[in-house]
Amino acid sequence: QVQLVESGGGLVQAGDSLRLSCAASGRTFTWYNLGWFRQAPGKEREFVAGISWTSTYTYYTDSVKGRFTISRDNAKNTLYLQMTTLKAEDTAVYFCAVGPLRVDPPREGWRRVGDYNYWGPGTQVTVSS
Residue 21's closest CA among 72, 90, 61, 89? Predict the structure, then answer.
């Protein structure tokens, strides 16, 4: 069992930056593929960014490419999402998630909610325009 807790969300203005963190406990996530998702009010949860278990591969949804960066610190059992040039449409609850174990992602990456097994409770990001 892995417990995840996100932090770093908040209320910011368009153009600002935020860094989200996701701390894991209960089991090291060193060998797992990890991801960030978000869910806006009235919408389905959507994929934002993923990182492979070796950190070799990172991949993003098109709307955040060039603005968001996913990274991980296995020594700290922590996943990050650096978000820059935030837009109002980035407003959502952001979730970190633990995915497949010790396997490189397919060419398109793991982008489905069902690809991930453990989830944090989420952190709210609100971007005012």
Answer: 72
